[in-house]
Amino acid sequence: MRLHRLEITAFGPFGTTQTVDFDTLSSAGLFLLHGPTGAGKTSVLDAVCFALYGSVPGVRQSPGASLRSDHAPVGTYTEVLLELTVGERRLEITRRPAQQRPKKRGTPGFTTEKAQTWLREYDPATGEWAGLSRSHQEIGEEITQLVGMSREQFCQVVLLPQGDFAKFLRADAEARGKLLGRLFDTRRFAAVEERLADLRRAAEQQVREGDERLLTLAHRMTQAAGGLDAARAPVEGRPGDPGLAESVLTWAAVARTEAREALDIAGVRFTAAERGQAAARAALDAEKELADRQARHADALRRREQLTARAPERDRHQAALDRSLKAERVAPALGLRKDAEREHATAQAARERSRAHLPPDLADQGAEHLSALEHRLRGELGGLGSARRAEQRAAALAEERAALTREARADEDALQDAAGWLADWEPRRTALAERVEATTDAAARAEHLAGRLEPARRRLAAARRRDALERDTAAAEARLTDAREHRNTAHEAWLDVKSRRLRGIAAELAATLTDGDACQVCGSTTHPAPARTTADHVDRATEDAAYAAYTRADESRTAVERELAVTREAWSTARAEVLSAADGSDPADGSASAPGSDPTIDELTREVEELTRLHGEAHALAGQTHHAREALARAEREYEERVGAQREAERRVAARTSRREALDGEQATLDEELARGRGAFGSVAEHATRLERQIAVLVEAAAAVRSAELAAQRLKEADDRLADAAYRAGFTTPAEARDALVGETERRALQQHVDVWQAEAAAVADRLAEPGTAAAAALPPADPEAAAAAHTAADRGLRQAASDLAAARERETGLTGLSRQAGTEVRRLGPLREEYDRVARLAALTAGTSAENERRMRLESYVLAARLEQVAAAATARLQRMSSGRYTLVHSDARSGGKRAGLGLHVVDAWTGNERDTATLSGGETFFASLALALGLADVVTDEAGGVRLDTLFIDEGFGSLDEQTLDEVLDVLDSLRERDRSVGIVSHVGDLRRRIPAQLEVVKARHGSAVRLRTGGDALSG
Predict the structure, then answer these.
(1) Lesser CB count within 10 Å: N end or C end of the chain?
(2) Strands 914-917 and 904-909
(3) Exposed, middle or buried: residue 825 (CB in 10 Å: 0-12, 13-18, 19+)?
(4) What does the pLDDT look like over 744-774, one tens digit per residue?
(5) Cβ proximity of 956 and 975 under 8 Å
(6) CA atoms of 902 and 836, how far apart (whole Å)
(7) ∠410-412-415 over CA atoms, to 5°?
(8) What torsion do the CA atoms of 474, 478, 481, 486 make, to the nearest 10 degrees?
(9) Residue-by-residue DSSP string for 182-205
(10) How far, in Å, CA of 969 to CA of 955, rounded?
(11) Sign of torsion, CA 157 160 165 170?
(12) How many Cα atoms are found within 13 Å in the side-chain-facing hemisphere of 485?
């Protein structure tokens, strides 16, 4: 796998698009990635990992963490593009993470845009890129298959980021096995293990199922043989155990024999039980009362003995309580003395630390002497101020002379560039002016067409409304006709019902008459012949219902009339809008309708489409007006700038000579003053730094001496107060008071013990004073249980004997039938058990769990052990060179503790001749041992048939732990990788590497985001 080009946009610390040309960097074989802390060196490697796998290593991919740069402008997408060659295929991967972007419509704000991925492949035959996929899942599977590693493995073998450099070296056998298995494609051996394991599990399942059926029969026989000696020793074993079938058959034969013997014995017992049924009667009431009194007396005596035994303990508790109350008065003084002792120990430790930094003649001096010496050194430091300013001015002069040299070269280049550019100015200006004129004409034409397009669109919309309203009008007219007919019918029905009610109104009034009440019409109180209702008479409710139906029908007709009027008005408005907007058409193109006729929708649609097409063409050309004018303005500004720069450069050349002469004179004066200020030191700054360190040490030592003296005085005062407090409390020494002091919890426990003892003593005395208890204790012991057992034993014995006889008959019959079933099952299970034994032996051997496999190595581990030997051999070639022949990496198949063997890795120290674990190496040794192992692993993976070729490696930090000689040897080893057409990128802060490695990628941080700079050759080494 080889990286070619990386483009990073709005990613991490990079606010704008940054391009990394790995082809240029890789051409040197060894290149350096450096920059200040926080600039984004690791973000470059994160971008490579994100492009390949869609995520970044470690905690930088934690939930809530955003990959988008805070420096990126709004609207700029976060994007990473990586061009690489893997598996003889040149691919281009572009990824965008999920990110916030401004909304394009609606309320202002942001919306989340989903993550996107593109994969393209370069076709050498056509010289073009062909798109392969935009699916995250498909691209992820394709890249993982081509690279041959997961994200974690890629970071461990290729990227090696931020302290994970020695992960493989210190990994256990299981972790190494997973990584090596993926790199060397040993899945077929793992598949053999899995296949044998599956066969073993299948055969084991069949045997277990047979054994479970056999054990089920054995369990049923054990249940059936309940009460026999065989049931107390059931078949021992689990499904799959060897010899299980023979054990079951043997046990079944023994159980059948015991069952027949038990049947004979049960018959004899039943006969004896019948003869002894009437043998047990006794008086139980007196025995029970006597037993109760004897038990109460015995319990009281036992409790009194216990109290007597616990009396000394109660006395000790009471004494401890009394002493703790006296010790409470000494507790404050004890706390003060403990604080003073802790403060004194701290002050003494600080005093000893400061004494270690002082010269021997000052180690035992007092604070006043140290302070006086400090003031003398401060005076000497103040006298170096003028010399330090002179030294700073000399450095500034050297930098200014270098700047003058750079300016001279820059001015010479600027003059040559300006002369070449100004020669082609006139033809270029004419072409730009013509382009501006063409776009201006297009803008005017687009504005004219826009004025015609909008009226045409309004006419088309009005025509569509007109036709729709015309259909609505016809429908409304039909509804109005129906509503009028329905209203007329309801009106006639109401009038008919009303007339019928009026004709029978006399009968309706007569129905309300009562004798003695006046008539509502004539006023008479007698009603000799009231009217009678006829067959066609209707009441008031019927009339009201008919009137309500008429009212609803009339309202419906009125609503339909209003709807029709509104629809007709809208149709007239739409038709008028279609006919009145004709001034937007072009009479020459024939699209306008003839006077007095209504244009159709098709005619208006064709007119709108034609105007839209013409307007789009003109608008597109007019859209280039701004760019054309900007291009002309930029060219004119550039012309003025180049002419001005040419004149300015000529002026600076003349002024630079006089400035250089003045600097030379000032430098001579400064050299004389610096010679006086440096003295015996290399520089004035070094002299001043030495004085400042001495002053700081003296200040710290004087403060430590004062603190120690004050702490000693406080400790002595605390001892005096403690001794006085202990004496007043009645203790001989403070230690005696400290020992007598107990905590609140312990004091409560002591008091509780004393209270419990006293309460128990009172209860025992009350019990012994009860009347009749002592008299009952003098009698022989009562036995009510024996009397009750004898009373019920006879009946239960007879019933039990009958039950045992029936159970014995049933048990003998059941055991005989189950034994026959067990024999049949054992004969069927024989061939299955033989097959299982054969497969299980092979599976255990390949899985490393068999006793025959002495090293406990799995089949895949056995294969990987050979690969690890190759890796160790390849790593040793570089490790010996980096360690000057001291260390050698060797493979070990020895077991470590209870773990399996096969993938151990040790280091042989040629200086001691000892072989030890790689975890015992020091920091620097671990670095170059891990580096050698990683490079050896890459070599073996590359040479492995069908393996992944790792042409680009990154090493992140660790060089700061190497001395100069070891650093040279490590760089020589890395530089030799060019022989295998491989490149190594070193990520480091070590300044010495920038002077040794010419190919460099520098990451520069700034207020508006970081940027990358590619530097090669002498330019990189000079910087």
Answers:
(1) C
(2) antiparallel
(3) middle
(4) 777 777 777 878 888 878 887 777 777 777 7
(5) no
(6) 28
(7) 110
(8) -150
(9) HHHT-HHHHHHHHHHHHHHHHHHH
(10) 16
(11) negative
(12) 6
- How far is residue 521 from each of residues 527, 586, 777, measured CA to CA in Å? 12, 86, 119
Query: What is the pLDDT averaged over residues 653-662?
Result: 75
With 0-12 CB in 10 A as exposed, 13-18 as middle and 19+ as buried, what is 421?
middle
Task: Yes or no: say if 251 and 258 are a contact pair by the CB < 8 Å rule.
Answer: no
- Rounded CA-CA distance 621/386 in Å is 70
Say if residues 724 and 734 touch (Cβ distance below 8 Å): no
What phi, psi does 231 have (nearest 5°)?
Answer: -70, -30
pLDDT at 591: 42
Max Cα–Cα distance, the chain, nearest Å: 158
DSSP state of 61: G
The string of pLDDT tens digits covering residues 957-1005 is 556 666 677 677 677 766 666 555 677 888 887 777 788 888 888 999 8
The residue that leads in pLDDT, 169 or 931, is 931
283 φ, ψ to 5°?
Answer: -90, 120
Cα radius of gyration rounded to whole Å, the chain: 55
Are the C-beta atoms of 477 and 605 separated by less than 8 Å? Answer: no
Residues 6+ apart with CB under 8 A from 647: none
Cα separation, 925 vs 929, whole angstroms: 6
Helix (H, G, I), strand (E, B) or coil at 886: coil
C-alpha torsion angle, residues 27, 13, 1007, 406 (rounded to 10): 0
Q: Which helix (H) or strand (E) holds 221?
A: helix 187-224
Cα-Cα-Cα-Cα torsion 667, 668, 673, 678, nearest 10 degrees, comes to 80
Query: Which residue blocks in 59-135 are alpha helix, DSSP H?
Result: none
Tell me the CA distances in angstroms from 385 to 374, 379, 674, 745, one per residue in order.
18, 11, 11, 68
Q: State CA 505 to chain mean position distance.
A: 92
- 898-907 pLDDT, tens digit per residue, is 555 567 778 8
Distance CA 542, CA 494 (A): 9
Residue 611 in contact with residue 456, Cβ under 8 Å? yes
d(CA 953, CA 942) in angstroms, rounded, equals 13
Grade residue 71 by pLDDT with cuts at 50, 70 and 90: confident
Alpha carbon distance 652, 331 (integer Å): 87
Nearest of 323, 211, 373 to residue 826 by alpha carbon? 211
